[in-house]
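Internal ticket #5521
Category: modeling
Description: The requester needs a full-assembly model to guide mutagenesis choices. All entity lines are attached below as received. Residue total reported by intake: 245.
Assigned to: D.W.
Attached entities:
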Amino acid sequence: MVIKHRLDNNILYVMLCGELDECSSKYTRQTLDKLCETGPFRQLVIDFSELQFMDSTGIGVLIGRYKKLKDRGVPIYIYNPNRTVEKIFKMSGLYEIMPKLV
Amino acid sequence: MIDNEMKLSIKSLSENEVFARSVVASFCLTLEPSIEEIGDIKTAVSEAVTNCVVHAYPKSVGNIEIGVKITGYLVTITVEDFGVGIEDVKQAMQPFYTSKPFGERSGMGFTVMEGFMDSVEVSSKPGSGTLVTMTKEIKRVKE
């Protein structure tokens, strides 16, 4: 897992590159938390364009970050997941709390 | 289509998840599945193996036996562990149910398996282990 990020116009963009499963979840969780602590931003956009694989472990990771940012009033948006990842998002109802950017 | 079969034995390490799902997906390639079908199989296998790593052997490393059988265009995948087992399978298969609510677990593992495969059967005996059997028919005519 490689995690790229940039801050633009007070929006934190994070790009997940690789595969998100139990093995990479700890690193993903810790890196996202570290990035979220860096400074003030009004939105977090998670870009899934370069994420080749994710299982339901990823849902747990995302909901964990959602709970933390919710207290700060910062919404999370999902961008460009592949078809299989999208199926997991729809199945879990994740889009109800983290809308998809179109 | 020639009937085919393979078996794989791995240790319950999360590092083996990518290996397990990739091997199973590769074995199914002779059926010429679509990208979506391969994604479904990879995800379901990853869920089953993750359950073994996280739940079956919570404090130790044990063995996971994975089997794949191809009969015509039907793929049957078994994932078996010899760990702690599941007390209440029906409850474990409920969406969002997790026995580890403080571990940021989604409780979606079995739900994803059921959504991505045609059938999922779970048999478990507390103290002896769990066997997950999943099937998926690969479509001959692609959309």
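Resolution: model delivered.
Comment from assignee: The first helix of chain A runs from residue 22 to 37.
Ticket closed.
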